[in-house]
Write a structure and sequence with these properties.
heterodimer, A: about 0% strand, B: about 0% strand
């Protein structure tokens, strides 16, 4: 159990870093998530 | 060497606890904000495009919080051999795994599909209705899971 919890924590840390980079890349740095309906917001 | 590492962790225990609570505040704050925004969307379906733009940023906040929580949680856990035997701790870890998997589902399935459905959102089509059911379950899991984790944190500290 001790090592399972350690493994889960490490896995969660690495996955969190992955998603932070993934979201920043998609939402801040590229136009991947820009849609036609974006113009309605302006 | 190992005991030196654990004594170093225990020396900074109060700070690690601080970051553990801070991580929970960051994540839970985002979850509550997302729930309020989704409730707003229920009453204002023509605002779907705004919601689709804001929710990835709230999701980013949850992942930042979860990162802080998992690193600080690991540092708190390491010197406390035996805590894994407590049923409340096991329940907390089960909830953490649940919100973690739910977060992956929200990012990889819910968010991209929501973006695709934005143009037809206010017409409340069959696809929108089906999506709302799946996304609603994921949102409820997120809400109950995160609140459960924070309540169990309060019991532990």
């Amino acid at each position: 159990m001790y090592w399972i919890i350690i493994s889960v924590s490490v896995l969660m840390s690495l996955t969190s870093i992955f998603f932070v980079i993934y979201i920043v890349k998609n939402e801040f740095k590229s136009n991947k998530n820009d849609y036609k309906w974006d113009k309605d917001l302006i | 060497m190992e005991s030196e590492f654990f004594s170093w962790i225990l020396k900074y225990d109060a700070w690690i606890r601080f970051f553990h609570v801070a991580g929970a505040i960051i994540s839970l704050g985002s979850v509550v904000a997302a729930d309020i925004i989704l409730l707003w969307l229920k009453f204002k379906p023509n605002m779907a495009s705004i919601v689709a733009k804001v929710t990835p940023l709230l999701s980013l906040q949850v992942w930042i919080g979860l990162f802080i929580l998992s690193v600080s949680g690991l540092l708190l856990f390491l010197p406390r051999v035996g805590i894994e035997g407590y049923s409340l701790f096991q329940l907390k870890m089960a909830l953490v795994i649940l919100v973690f998997l739910n977060g992956i589902f929200l990012n990889l399935w819910v968010s991209p599909n929501f973006n695709k459905l934005v143009p037809e959102w206010s017409q409340n089509t069959k696809m929108v209705k089906n999506f709302t059911k799946a996304a609603g379950i994921a949102t409820a899991v997120s809400f109950l899971g995160w609140w459960g984790i924070v309540v169990l944190m309060k019991i532990f500290y």
